[in-house]
């Protein structure tokens, strides 16, 4: 059984294939690039696909376009995976489980497929989310603005604050202090996010009385990684791993 898994985020699409249970992460593309190059990225590479699954937090227009392209190429109707009250030994901590984003749920399922330890998922995307799981129970989480969201908010809210690309951050500087406005925004938001993660994980470790395994994912994870105090595993395809875990656990019953 050959299955394609697609994670539709706010700005990027990640995708993977499971061929008779053998998983391969295929990569991540900007949404527009993925849709424009889907023939080359997917359809030309894989002729025989039996099922397609997707999870989304994004624009419904993107979902409909993707479904149409897949149906035309493979004559398949993609199946949407959503948050559940419980699945595969994971219990949602939300009173109304429908309100928990599917990206957070799938990432936690991905974590469950990797470890039996208490674990924390840090997803650094448009929003920076942190979720804690102990003994299969989602204990709850936090949501704060992601790096790009904070940076764009500053640039849009204050006319005199110029914005630049993350690539322009001076990594060779002899001090963490920025020498221009754009650099101040880039470095300030980076340290702010990293400090939030560091303090939160330390507090949770103290509160629970154990060391959480930390799983880091999301488009901004690489920027934050060097500033984190804790040991962590960087898992760029954590949401996809959760999707695969959900589908194959159910199918193999």
From TrEMBL:
Function, as annotated: Catalyzes the phosphorylation of pantothenate (Pan), the first step in CoA biosynthesis.
| Record keywords | ATP-binding, Coenzyme A biosynthesis, Cytoplasm, Kinase, Metal-binding, Nucleotide-binding, Potassium, Transferase
EC top class, as a word: transferase
- Any GO BP: coenzyme A biosynthetic process
Residues binding K(+) are 123
Q: Which PANTHER family match?
A: TYPE III PANTOTHENATE KINASE
The Swiss-Prot or TrEMBL record annotates one GO molecular function as: metal ion binding
Q: Which reaction does it catalyse?
A: (R)-pantothenate + ATP = (R)-4'-phosphopantothenate + ADP + H(+)
Does the keyword Membrane belong to this entry?
Answer: no
Protein name according to UniProt: Type III pantothenate kinase
Q: Which SUPFAM superfamilies match?
A: Actin-like ATPase domain
Task: Name the active site residues.
Answer: 103
- Assembly behavior: Homodimer.
Q: Which residues form a coiled coil?
A: none
Q: In which compartments does the protein localize?
A: Cytoplasm
Q: Which residues bind substrate per the record? A: 94, 101-104, 181
Q: Which InterPro entries match?
A: ATPase_NBD, Type_III_PanK
Q: Which cofactor does it need?
A: K(+); NH4(+)
């Amino acid at each position: 059984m050959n299955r394609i898994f697609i994670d539709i985020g706010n700005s990027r699409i990640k995708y993977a294939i499971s061929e008779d249970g053998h998983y391969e992460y295929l990569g991540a593309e900007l949404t527009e690039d993925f849709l424009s190059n889907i023939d080359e990225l997917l359809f030309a590479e894989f002729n025989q696909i039996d099922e397609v699954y997707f999870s989304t937090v994004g624009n419904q227009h993107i979902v409909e376009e993707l479904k149409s392209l897949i149906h035309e190429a493979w004559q398949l109707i993609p199946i949407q995976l959503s948050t559940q009250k419980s699945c595969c030994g994971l219990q949602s901590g939300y009173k109304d489980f429908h309100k928990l984003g599917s990206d957070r749920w799938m990432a936690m399922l991905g974590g469950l497929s990797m470890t039996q330890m208490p674990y924390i998922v840090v997803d650094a995307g448009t929003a920076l989310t942190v979720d804690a799981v102990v003994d299969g129970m989602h204990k709850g989480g936090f949501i704060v603005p992601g790096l790009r969201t904070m940076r764009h908010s500053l640039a849009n809210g204050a006319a005199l604050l110029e914005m630049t690309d993350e690539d322009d951050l001076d990594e060779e500087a002899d001090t963490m202090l920025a020498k221009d406005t754009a650099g101040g925004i880039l470095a300030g938001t980076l340290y702010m996010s990293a400090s939030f993660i560091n303090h939160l994980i330390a507090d949770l470790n103290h509160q629970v009385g154990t060391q959480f395994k930390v799983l880091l994912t999301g488009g901004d994870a690489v920027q934050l990684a060097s500033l984190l105090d804790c040991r962590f595993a960087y898992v760029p395809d954590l949401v996809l791993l959760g999707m695969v875990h959900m589908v194959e656990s159910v199918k193999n019953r």
